[in-house]
Write a structure and sequence with these properties.
Blueprint lengths: L2 H14 L18 H12 L7 H16 L7 H11 L7 H8 L3 H6 L10 H10 L5 H8 L10 H14 L10 H7 L3 H12 L7 H13 L3 H14 L6 H14 L3 H13 L4 H18 L5 H17 L4 H14 L13 H11 L4
Amino acid sequence: MTVVENYKAELELVRQNPKLLDNYRFDKDAIDSKHFDRLRLNIAIYNDLKQTDYEIVKFLFAEEKEWRKYGKGGEVDNLYFCAFILTLFNSPEIVWLFFEAKNIDFDSGIGFDSEYLVSAGIKETYRYLKTADNPKKTELLKYIGEAEESCIYSQIDIDDWKEYKKSYFRSYKLPIQDELYFLYSTNERELFLKKLPEWINQERAWTYEELSLYRTYAKYANDKALEIEAFKLTLKKNDKDFLTEVYNQELAALYVETGENTKALEILERIVKGTDNSNIVRNCIEQLCRIIIRTNNSSDETSKNSYHIIKVQHKKYRNFSPMVEGLIMDVTEIMKEGKIAAPNNSLPKARRTWWKEFFGSGY
C-alpha cells in the first residue's frame, strides 16, 4: 500500500464516521498540532474528491485557521492547500471563512490570496452576498468591490488563478511526480530518510533549484555533516556571485556548530577582509563570538585570532546590534581571564541571557 493509499484509507474511516474528525482537531496547548495529519487527509480528498466531503474540508480548514492564529510550527502552504480544496466545491458561503483567514494577522493579509474571496465565481459570489446576513459584509464588500461591476477581479482573473493554484499544488496529485519532495512536504520523515541518499547520488547538473532543495533536505534530516556538504556543493556550483557571501556565512555557522572552528575562522576572516558591508561584518562577528563562547578557553589559538578580528572590527564600526554587543561583552570577559573561563553562571545575569538565547540553557 502506497502512502497516498494509506491516506485514502484514513479518509474512508472519517467518511463512515465523522466523529473521527476529533482526531484532527487543533489544540493550542497540545504538543502535536495535527497539522500534517490534516494535510494528509486533504491530500486523500484531493485525489478522491466527493461533494459529500465538503463538511470535512470545511472542518479541516477551520482547524488550520486556528493553527495559523497561534503560530505553531509547520508550513503555511498547508492552510493554502486546504483553502484551494475548498474552492473545488464552488460554494459562495465559504467566503466568510476565507475572509477570516485573510484577516488573522499582517502576514495572512499578504500571503492569503484575495482571489479566494471570489473563487466560487464573481457572479455567484455577488448573488450570494445580496441576501447574505453577516456582520463582516460591509467590510468584505469594501475590500472586493461593492458590486459585481466594480469587483477587483474579473472572472478571467479567477479562472487563471485557479489554473495556477492547480499547478502549484501538482505535487500532491497522483501520480506523484517527485516522491522525495512529497515525503518532505507531508513530513513522512522515516520514508524520506530512506530515500534521501538515492536522491543525492543521482547524476545531475545540480541546478539552482536542486541545490536549494539539497540544503533544505539536509536541514530537515537534521544532519549537520550533510548540511555542510550541501553548502560546499552550492558554493562549488554557484553562478550567482551576490549569494556567495551568504552561503559562506551559512557554512561558517555550521562549522561553528560542529566544532570545526579553524575552518569557520578561515571563512569568516576572508569574508570580513573582503567587505565593507557592516551587516555582513556584524554577522561574522556574531559567529566569531560563538567560537570563543563554545571553546571557552582564552588560551586557544582560534579564540585568540577570533578575538583579534572582533576587536579590530569593533573599533572600526564602533557599534553593532544590541545582541552582538552583548556577545562581545561576554567574549571580552572570557579572553581577559587569561585562563579557562569560569562557568556561565558566574557571568553577570543580564549577559547570560545572550548565551541562553543562542546556545540553550545547557551552555
